Amino acid sequence: MVANAQRDPLAFAPLYARYVDAVYRYCYRRLGNRAEAEDATSAIFVRALTSLSQYREGTFRGWLFTIAHHVVADTFRRVRPTRPLTNEDDWVDPDPGPDAHAIAAQERSMLGAFLIQLPADQRDVIELRLSGLRSAEVAHVVGRTPGAVRNLQHRAVVRLRELAEASIAPMEECRGRQ
Questions:
Q1: Which of 8, 50, 137, 173 has its CA 20 to 30 A from that of 163?
Q2: What is the pTM of this model?
Q3: How far is CA 36 from each of CA 41, 65, 119, 164, rounded to the nearest angstrom?
Q4: Spatial separation of the C-alpha atoms in residues 2 and 13, rounded to whole Å
């Protein structure tokens, strides 16, 4: 598909259709705002289409997420996002019932709060992995070796586990008093 798109820009449509949802989810997770995520997604595919002739090696998805990573970073440089950690409107899934909404929103809010506490390199690795990229693709995006990415991911998971356990302990303490 990539080779066809390099010869004929109209053949880029299947690549767009295949990756647009994953790229949008990554942008939305990083930017936390639907409008900014849509703008970033659009910019990513414009850049990908205009620089498709420069694509040479690795997976197309890895190359595309490298562009996405740079566009999101540029967006952060341009506009410092200020979003509250408990903005449940941005996290609500319309399908489940109210209880499921509340639980899911709280979990996502906690995960967002925990991710913010990670060093930037660890946060980038986790967010790219949550977007569905494999370790080798993440390594390509962040410019590290696959081994370094696995180490970053391991340290991030250990830290996230520590943060989760620390947040659960006060809740269990409150339940014990009742």
A1: 137
A2: 0.55
A3: 8, 17, 23, 29
A4: 10
